[in-house]
UniProtKB/TrEMBL annotation:
Pfam families: Acetyltransf_7
Organism: Actinomadura macrotermitis
Domain N-acetyltransferase: 42-189
Alphabetical list of Gene3D superfamilies matching this protein: 3.40.630.30
Gene Ontology MF term list: acyltransferase activity, transferring groups other than amino-acyl groups
Protein name (Swiss-Prot/TrEMBL): N-acetyltransferase domain-containing protein
Domain of life: Bacteria
Length: 200
């Protein structure tokens, strides 16, 4: 059985695939079902953000027992003031490290909004491939993202550290409730990949 292939898609193709993309998100994150319509709205809005870039990991066709053709996805965009995540994190970084610290990370960032791999495909390097391809060739100075902070040794956290990303905030509660997050950042281009014991 062939591995899913990575493919860069534009904003229109991203919107056309939003339903299967959300299915991967739901399988990976297991959010309450009533949160999915709101997540759909947020992702659709992100597709209009500046310098939006998206990748999917797709199979040529759906296979019995493996669900749809989209098996993983990642997307991001140029972060700037006026974007909700950017403004919330900027204020938190100012509070913890000062304005210069916040500007170092968020003056010219590529913000990875989502990166998820279907649980049936995890542990094969697909998350690493998505992250590497997504960040390749970006001209921003830094890359930043947030990830669940339930387990500091999770495969996702290990993956991000393996390409040079560091914790900027931990145990961070975004407005509106939900679990604690870690905000991580690195410089671009990403550091050469150091293979951990496993990756998402």
């Amino acid at each position: 059985m062939r591995e899913p292939k990575l493919r860069e898609i534009d904003d229109r193709a991203f919107l056309r695939r939003l339903h299967p993309i959300l299915q991967v998100y739901a399988a990976a994150m297991r959010p309450p079902p009533d949160q999915l319509p709101g997540r759909h709205t947020i992702m659709a809005r992100h597709a209009a953000y500046p310098r939006f870039r998206a990748l999917v990991a797709e199979r040529a066709r759906s296979l019995p027992g493996l669900g749809g053709t989209v098996r993983g996805f990642a997307y991001g965009f140029h972060g700037e003031r006026g974007q909700w995540w950017h403004d919330v994190v900027f204020q938190a970084l100012v509070a913890t490290g000062g304005a210069e610290h916040a500007a170092h990370w968020l003056a010219d960032p590529f913000e990875v909004a989502e990166l998820h791999v279907h649980p049936e495909e995890q542990g094969r390097g697909l998350g690493r491939g998505l992250l590497t391809a997504l960040c390749e060739g970006r001209t921003e100075r830094t890359v930043v993202l947030s990830t669940l902070d339930l387990d500091p040794g999770s495969p996702a956290r290990r993956l991000y550290r393996s390409v040079g990303m560091v914790d900027l905030l931990t145990g961070f509660d975004f407005p509106g409730g939900g679990p604690p997050y870690a905000v991580m950042g690195g410089t671009l281009p990403l550091a050469p990949y150091r293979s951990p014991s496993s990756s998402p």
